[in-house]
Structure prediction request, 222 residues.
Amino acid sequence: QKEVEQNSGPLSVPEGAIASLNCTYSDRGSQSFFWYRQYSGKSPELIMFIYSNGDKEDGRFTAQLNKASQYVSLLIRDSQPSDSATYLCAARIQGAQKLVFGQGTRLTINP
Amino acid sequence: DVKVTQSSRYLVKRTGEKVFLECVQDMDHENMFWYRQDPGLGLRLIYFSYDVKMKEKGDIPEGYSVSREKKERFSLILESASTNQTSMYLCATKGEVYGYTFGSGTRLTVV
Prediction:
């Protein structure tokens, strides 16, 4: 079992709708979670991080964490074509420096 | 903003060559990482370093070595390049609080 799992997609969402990206993790020692966006041919860029159970909002993005279910999600409201990218979920175990990445979900926003 | 610079964007090398990939960061971060990214396999950790002259193996260190003589520079070395090392190589640095900041990546082709 992979430590961080994501549905590879592709996930297709109409423009203006909510895109929902999901991630599960296996190590209960994981303490902090990160969402990266990666455009084709580019390197990943950090868009959200979350440490505590519940929701964290930043503009059109909301990260959700449920440690009991070992589940992290990213919601993108009012999806734009520029949101089309691969989204990587990553987890960090407490005390460790390295991040463990999921395989990424490819998201396409259709105009 | 943290700047992570990888010396080459694209590189073509011959099988058996010794290859050096350089990464330089300007924010005095202690932790630096080398990943490779391949379609369907996601980001895989090769090596990381948490201090000058310190290194730790990641998940796929075989065929690679690293050097960190100065805090700002972390080099990945392919001792004898092989075609299965054709990949996108990503360097990252980590500060105290947030996740990684990635360099722009080096797309290496071994022929």
Notes: Chain A has a mean pLDDT of 93. Chain A is about 0% helix and 55% strand. Residues 84 and 108 of chain A are 5 Å apart (CA to CA).
